[in-house]
Write a structure and sequence with these properties.
Blueprint: E1 3-7, E2 14-15, E3 20-22, H1 27-35, E4 42-47, H2 54-64, E5 67-73, H3 91-111, E6 115-118, E7 124-125, H4 133-149, E8 155-159, E9 168-169, H5 174-184, E10 189-194, H6 195-200, H7 205-214, E11 218-223, H8 241-253, E12 260-263, H9 272-291, H10 295-304, H11 307-316
Parallel strand pairs: 1-4, 1-12, 4-5, 5-6, 6-8, 8-10, 10-11, 11-12
Antiparallel strand pairs: 2-3, 7-9
Helix pairs in contact: 1-2, 3-4, 4-5, 7-8, 8-9
């Protein structure tokens, strides 16, 4: 049974370019809210936001008996690393990135976690001839290689996304990100598969999972949904029920059945606790539907590759 976590950022202030939906909350308020969501096993902590008072953080983790699915390292921040962090033209900024990641790796070990995830949204471009791509990949490989070498027991996961806030992020899809990880060659550098990002970039999440696993880079999974036109961070199964079931099926085949899923869900104006209660219910329902699949029967159907047989079989499980 997979463990479920909530990214703490979505328990606090929630806003977009136009509106503020939820006001900022203290770390203690976030933990209290998460504790009201039955079925949640832990949290994905955000660095640096959740680490202003490390002693208090440890007390809250112990009080609520929460596990840590990962530490989300924010490589894009207001007032810092405007033109990218690990691809910055400034050697000083790139070293800042390495130094901070190393600090987070130490903190992760101290808290009993062995995984850091980062979504490098600001490393990319808005227009043509804005970035020297060759130099950017060299800088990225150098900085991630240095960070990974600090502790091979801590996995660093790159969460790819096609765009936002850049019109084109450097790591936009599963293939690009896996290729980069292979280029770096560090055994502890891998990928966070965010199903919403995969859908938004036009991927089949199950296929992306298989590719990343074959490259030994499938390190972590985020759950959310969207309409395929933007990364709306909706509840799992809002739009793509069969994509979720297919992904869960293959994640089971790939041995990801006892690891963490983290909810990357945007509550907007809806009550935050109710939103994540629904996320848990829907995820368990989608997993239940997946578990109804007779794997031996599916193996035979996959050999036949006949949708006229496979799709009716799947609908018979509903």
């Amino acid at each position: 049974m997979n463990k479920l976590a909530i990214i703490t950022a979505f328990l606090g202030g929630v806003r977009n370019r136009y509106m503020v939906y939820q006001e900022d909350r203290t770390l203690e308020e976030k933990f209290l809210m998460a504790s009201k969501v039955e079925g949640i096993d832990g949290l994905e902590l955000c660095y640096p936001a959740d680490f202003d008072d490390p002693k208090k953080l440890k007390e809250l983790l112990e009080k609520y008996n929460f596990g840590i699915s990962a530490i989300n390292f924010r490589s894009r921040r207001t007032g810092k690393w405007w033109r990218g962090s690990f691809t910055s033209l400034s050697a000083i900024e790139r070293q800042e990135f390495v130094d901070e990641v190393r600090q987070v790796m130490d903190v992760a070990i101290e808290l009993g976690s062995h995984r850091i995830t980062t979504c490098p949204l600001n490393d990319g471009t808005d227009s043509h001839f804005e970035m020297d791509y060759i130099r950017a990949y060299d800088y990225a490989a150098e900085t991630f290689s240095k960070a990974c070498a600090h502790n091979r027991q801590v996995r660093i996961c790159i969460e790819y996304k096609e765009s936002d806030p850049r019109t084109r992020c450097l790591f936009g899809n599963a293939g690009e990100t896996a290729s980069f990880c292979q280029l770096v060659g560090a055994s502890n550098l891998g990928v966070t598969l965010d199903i919403g990002h995969a859908l938004y970039t036009g991927e089949r999440p199950a296929q992306s999972a298989a590719l990343l696993a074959k490259a030994n880079r499938l390190f972590y999974v985020h759950l959310n949904d969207n309409d395929g036109r933007w990364d709306w961070d909706m509840l799992p199964g809002s739009y793509h029920i069969w994509e979720f079931i297919e992904m869960f099926y293959y994640l089971g085949q790939l041995g990801y059945d006892d690891d963490w899923y983290a909810f990357d869900v945007f509550p907007k104006e809806i009550d935050t606790v109710d939103t994540f209660k629904a996320a848990v219910t829907l995820t368990r329902k989608l997993k239940d539907l997946t578990d109804r699949i007779d794997r031996k029967k599916m193996e035979k159907l996959l050999e036949e590759r006949n949708p006229a047989k496979t799709i009716p079989y799947l609908h018979s499980l509903l």
